[in-house]
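Retry 2 of 3 after timeout on previous attempt. Resubmitting C-alpha cells to design endpoint.
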C-alpha cells in the first residue's frame, strides 16, 4: 500500500521508469552500479570523490581489466530475452548496452593518452574531489590526508599515459598545452596554506597542519615535476596539426566521438552542413534584432558597439553576480507557466574560485546534493569584466541554472530509485541539448527584455552553431586556427578571451562541442512533431515534464519515448 501511494504521488514519467522490474535485469544493473562506484570515470562520471582507491587507476592493465568486466556485463544483458522484459526494462537494458559499448570502444582507442584537454585535466582531479569531500570526523580527515598522499602516484600514472601518447604520436598541440601549463603554474605558485585541498579540513587544526605538510613535501614537488614535464618534453612533441584528424587513426577516433557525444549516426560532413545552415538562419534573426534596436551601421559596427559601450559591462565582480542573481529570480516567476514539475532544490549564484578562473568558461552549473543539504551552484566567472557582457546574462542563466542544467539535475536527484545511468547527466546531447533548448525557450517565456538581450541569446546560439562548423572544420577538414576563429568573430558578439578559451577546448576535446546544437535541434524537432500530431491536445508543460522525466537517454531512444507519448494522447 505504501509503495502504491508512493507511485501515485510520483510524476507519470517516474512511474514509467520504475516499472515492475526484472530480477535478472535488476541484478545486472546492480552489478553495473557496483562497477560505477568503484570506477566512476569509466561509468561516465568525472567526480572520483567516492572512489575507494582514491584516484582513478588508468594504467593500460587497469583499463583492460575494466574493459573485460564491462564486456561480461554486456554479454549477460544481451542474453536477456525481450519477451521477459517490460517496455521500460527493455529501455533501461538497451540504454545500458549503449553506455557499455561506448566505454569499451573508448578504451579500445587508448584515449587516456590524452590526459588533459586544456583547462580540464588530471591536474584538477584532486581539487574537484576536495569540493565534494565531507569530513565529519577526525577519521574522515585522516582518510582525506591518505588520499592526498596518493596524488604523486596518480600524477606518475598520468605522466606514463602522456609518454605513451608521445610514443604513438597522440599528443595535444601547443595551444592546448599553453592552457594546461597556465593552470599548473597557478597551482604550483599558490602558498600551501591557501591551497583548496585543505578546505575539507577547516576547523581541525592538527589535521590541517599535517595536510599542509603533505602538500609542501609531496604534492608541490609532484606538481612542479609534471609542470616541467608538460612544458618541456611533452611540449617538444606537441602535434603540429590542430585537428585530431592529423594523427594516425585520428579520423576513426573522431567518428567514434561524434557517435558518442551526439548519440546519433550523423557524420562529420552532415554535422558541418547542419552547422552552416544554422549559422545562416541565426544570422537572419540577428539582423532583425539589430533593426529592432534602431542601430544604424554594419554588423561589424554593431559588434564594436556592443564590445565597447560601458553600459553592457559590470563595474565590479559583485555587480556581475547581482545581475545573474536578478535574472535567475526573474526567470523563477515565469517557470510554472511552462513546467508542471519543478525541483525542490534551490541554487546559489557564486563566483568561480580564483585558482580556476583563468581559462575557465564564462558560467557553469555546479551540482549539489539536496539530500545532504547542499544547494545547486550556478558558478560565474567574474574575472576580466570587460569580456563578460551583461546582455548574455539571461541566456546563460537559462542554460546553466533554470530551466536548464540545474532544473534537469535537481529533478533527477529526486528519484534515487532510477538507475544511476538515468540520473547521471553524462550524455552531452541530452544534457546540453536540453540546456540550449532552455535558452531558445526564453524567447517564448518573455525572458529577453530588449533587442540587446535577444541578440545576446542569438549570439550564444550562434556560438553553438559555429561550434558544429568549427569542430568538424578543425578535426576533419584541416582548418587553421585563424579560419576557425573567424566563424566566431564574424558572426557572434563573443569577447576575444571567450573565443580563445573555447577554441582551446574544441581543439583539446574533439567532438563534444557539436553535441549541444545536435541535441537541441532534436528536441525542437520532437516538439514540432508532437505539436503537429496532437494539435489542440498538445500540452507544453506535459511535454517538458516528459523530457525531464527521462533523466537522460540517447537521442534515438528519446525519439521513441516521444512517439509513444504522442500515440497515447491521440
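Retry 2 succeeded. Sequence:
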Amino acid at each position: 500500500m505504501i509503495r502504491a501511494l508512493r507511485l501515485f504521488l510520483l510524476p507519470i514519467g517516474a512511474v514509467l521508469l520504475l516499472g515492475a522490474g526484472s530480477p535478472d535485469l535488476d541484478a545486472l544493473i546492480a552489478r553495473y552500479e557496483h562497477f560505477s562506484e568503484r570506477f566512476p570515470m569509466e561509468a561516465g562520471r568525472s567526480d572520483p570523490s567516492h572512489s575507494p582507491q582514491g584516484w582513478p587507476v588508468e594504467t593500460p592493465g587497469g583499463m583492460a581489466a575494466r574493459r573485460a568486466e564491462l564486456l561480461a556485463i554486456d554479454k549477460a544483458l544481451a542474453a536477456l530475452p525481450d519477451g521477459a522484459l517490460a517496455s521500460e526494462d527493455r529501455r533501461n537494458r538497451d540504454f545500458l548496452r549503449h553506455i557499455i559499448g561506448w566505454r569499451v570502444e573508448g578504451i579500445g582507442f587508448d584515449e587516456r593518452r590524452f590526459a588533459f584537454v586544456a583547462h580540464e585535466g588530471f591536474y584538477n582531479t584532486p581539487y574537484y574531489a576536495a569540493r565534494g569531500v565531507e569530513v565529519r570526523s577526525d577519521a574522515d580527515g585522516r582518510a582525506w590526508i591518505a588520499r592526498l598522499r596518493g596524488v604523486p602516484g596518480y600524477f606518475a600514472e598520468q605522466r606514463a599515459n602522456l609518454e605513451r601518447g608521445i610514443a604513438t604520436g597522440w599528443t595535444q598541440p601547443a595551444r592546448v598545452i599553453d592552457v594546461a601549463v597556465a593552470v599548473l603554474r597557478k597551482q604550483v605558485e599558490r602558498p600551501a596554506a591557501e591551497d583548496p585541498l585543505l578546505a575539507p579540513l577547516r576547523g581541525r587544526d592538527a589535521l590541517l597542519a599535517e595536510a599542509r605538510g603533505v602538500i609542501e613535501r609531496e604534492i608541490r614537488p609532484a606538481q612542479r615535476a609534471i609542470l616541467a614535464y608538460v612544458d618541456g618534453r611533452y611540449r617538444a612533441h606537441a602535434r603540429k596539426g590542430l585537428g585530431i584528424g592529423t594523427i594516425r587513426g585520428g579520423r576513426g577516433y573522431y567518428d567514434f566521438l561524434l557517435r558518442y557525444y551526439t548519440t546519433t549516426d550523423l557524420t562529420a560532413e552532415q554535422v558541418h552542413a547542419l552547422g552552416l545552415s544554422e549559422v545562416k538562419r541565426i544570422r537572419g534573426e540577428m539582423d532583425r534584432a539589430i533593426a529592432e534596436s534602431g542601430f544604424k551601421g554594419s554588423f561589424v559596427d554593431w559588434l564594436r558597439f556592443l564590445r565597447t559601450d560601458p553600459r553592457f559591462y559590470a563595474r565590479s565582480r559583485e555587480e556581475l553576480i547581482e545581475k545573474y542573481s536578478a535574472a535567475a529570480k526573474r526567470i523563477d516567476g515565469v517557470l510554472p507557466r511552462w513546467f508542471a514539475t519543478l525541483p525542490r532544490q534551490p541554487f546559489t549564484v557564486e563566483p568561480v574560485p580564483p585558482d580556476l578562473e583563468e581559462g575557465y568558461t564564462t558560467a557553469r552549473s555546479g551540482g549539489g546534493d539536496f539530500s545532504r543539504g547542499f544547494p545547486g551552484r550556478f558558478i560565474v566567472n567574474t574575472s576580466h569584466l570587460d569580456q563578460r557582457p551583461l546582455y548574455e546574462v539571461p541566456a546563460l542563466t537559462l542554460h546553466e541554472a533554470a530551466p536548464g542544467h540545474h532544473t534537469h539535475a535537481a529533478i533527477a536527484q529526486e528519484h534515487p530509485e532510477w538507475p544511476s545511468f538515468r540520473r547521471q547527466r553524462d550524455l552531452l546531447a541530452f544534457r546540453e541539448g536540453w540546456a540550449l533548448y532552455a535558452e531558445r525557450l526564453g524567447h517564448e517565456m518573455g525572458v529577453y527584455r530588449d533587442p540587446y538581450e535577444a541578440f545576446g541569446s542569438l549570439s550564444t546560439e550562434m556560438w553553438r552553431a559555429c561550434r558544429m562548423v568549427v569542430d568538424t572544420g578543425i578535426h576533419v577538414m584541416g582548418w587553421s586556427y585563424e579560419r576557425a576563429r573567424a566563424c566566431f568573430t564574424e558572426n557572434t558578439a563573443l569577447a576575444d578571451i571567450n573565443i580563445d578559451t573555447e577554441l582551446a577546448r574544441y581543439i583539446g576535446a574533439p567532438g563534444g562541442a557539436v553535441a549541444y546544437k545536435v541535441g537541441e535541434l532534436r528536441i525542437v524537432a520532437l516538439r514540432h512533431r508532437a505539436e503537429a500530431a496532437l494539435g489542440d491536445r498538445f500540452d507544453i508543460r506535459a511535454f517538458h515534464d516528459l523530457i525531464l522525466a527521462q533523466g537522460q537517454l540517447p537521442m534515438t531512444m528519446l525519439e521513441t519515448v516521444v512517439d509513444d507519448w504522442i500515440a497515447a494522447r491521440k
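Attempt log closed. Residues 1-20, 43-52 have pLDDT under 50 and may be disordered.
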